[in-house]
Each structure stands twice: as structure tokens, then as C-alpha cells.
């Protein structure tokens, strides 16, 4: 799984800012500790009674009395440059960058030169504009490898379960079947559940059809030829096309009598389906009048998980993905 430049920069920024904050706090604490006797001798005021204040810098930025060392400031400025780039501004001129980070062009040029030599940015020879470099792609790939589906999906699934009060499942493709890899049970006494690790068909059930709908045609044909179906191939294909378009599937009494489910796809950063998010329960509680509200909550949850995995769009921005 790959992270976009913007997503990687956010991760990098969070890490560096955390380091900077800890470093600044440590530096101030160490300096005060080393000089506390000198401070007391000069002021005759106990150190714990001395009040320290913020200094307001032009532009609204607040700094502690002891600014970060030059190396830390340079690092922060480099991060600020990387943060200038996003989906709407993939290429920027030197002037645009210097204005965004509020630094002189000469300083910005030196920073860009260092970033360029390390392939964090590159200059378009045709436009003389800067853009994010390939090194971010490589590091983003490594960072993307560490993003696991279940931990990312967990808070969203819990919230969806609390909203719907029904069982929420996460299914992934497993050969020619689907497997439940995570589940949050309904809060109600009568509920629908499947076993974690249980393999289920793709041709019946909302979760299965959601995964099947986003596969290649040959794969779909093969699965339809070997798994149970409650409709004709033509009808199922039409339903799969609708699922791709709407990013939503519904099933009533398909895999089990008296059980209904709804599902929505979860995509990774490349726009490939990585899971199906499902809400299931007794058919008696799947009131047709309440299904639009369920669909809204379910699709929003699937979008949230997808975005947290690196998928950069809302579903209505990426029809056919």
C-alpha cells in the first residue's frame, strides 16, 4: 500500500513536530536546572515562583523565550515547504513557496536546493516549478506497508455499531470466497453473527457481492460458475454493476433466512477494493423506510476507513473506482 505525498508529509510532520516539542521542553528545563542557583543568587526569588511568558512574533506565531536551535528551525522550515504541496497545488514556483512559508526567497532557495539534492522535491524543467520528489514516494511506500486494515477500521466500526445497534463486519477476499476478519456485535439480544475467520460465498450476501462486484470479469465468471446463486447470471451481473456505481449493496434472506445485510466497499490508496464493510441483523429490523439512513451511515463509515488507508476521494468523486 502506498501513501500519497500529502499523507506522508502529514505523518512526517507529526513525528518531527513531536520531536521538536520534546526537544524544546527538554532544552528549557535543562538550562533552568543548570542555572537555578545563579537565578536565585541574582534575584533571591525561588525558581518555582518565576513566571515565564510567551513572546508574540510578527505574523501571529508564538515562540517560547528560548527559540529552538538553528538546526531545528531549519528542519521545521523544510517541513513547511513540503506541506505547501497538496492536490490543488502539485507544482509551485519559488515565489509561491516563499510566500506560503513567509520566508525570503534566498532562504527558500537554499532550503529547496537541499531538498532537491535529496530528492524530496524536484524541479520541472519545462515550467521551472517545484513538485514533490520521488524520495517521498519510496518512503511513503514503506510507511504504507505499516498501515494495517483492522486497527484503522476499529474505531469507525465501533462507532457504526453504536449508531446502528446492529452487528458490523469487515470482510476481505480469500481466494474465491470472503472471510470475516473483524466483527463488532450488535448491542441487542437478538443479533446476527459470523465467526471470525469463517469463509463465506461471494455470490450471496451484501458483503460477498460487494467484494465480487469490484473484481475482473474472468474472476466473476469463474465464481458464478462454482458458487450458489439465487438469481440468474444476468440478474447478478446487473446487480454487481449497480453496486459498483452506488458503492452500496443490500441482501435480504439471501444466505440465511431471516437475516439481512448491507455493505459498502473499502478502498486502498490505489483505488483497489481491500474490504467490504457490512451491517447485518434480523430482517425484521431492516425496515425499508429506514434503509436510506442506514445507507448514509454505512457509506460514510466506509469512506472514512478508505480515507484513513490513503484513498484520497469521497466515493461520489471516484465513480468506477
Automatic annotation (TrEMBL):
IclR-ED domain segment(s): 135-311
Q: Which Pfam families match?
A: HTH_IclR, IclR_C
Which Gene Ontology terms describe the biological processes this protein takes part in?
Answer: negative regulation of DNA-templated transcription
What is the name of the protein in this document? Glycerol operon regulatory protein
* InterPro entries cross-referenced by the UniProt entry: GAF-like_dom_sf, HTH_MetabolicPath_Reg, Tscrpt_reg_IclR_C, Tscrpt_reg_IclR_N, WH-like_DNA-bd_sf, WH_DNA-bd_sf
* Alphabetized PANTHER family for the sequence: HELIX-TURN-HELIX TRANSCRIPTIONAL REGULATOR, ICLR FAMILY, HTH-TYPE TRANSCRIPTIONAL REPRESSOR ALLR
One GO MF annotation is: DNA-binding transcription factor activity
Give UniProt keywords alphabetically: DNA-binding, Transcription, Transcription regulation
- What organism is listed for this UniProt entry? Salibacterium salarium
Q: What does this protein do?
A: May be an activator protein for the gylABX operon.
Q: Locate the HTH iclR-type domain: which residues?
A: 72-134
Coiled-coil regions, chain positions:
none
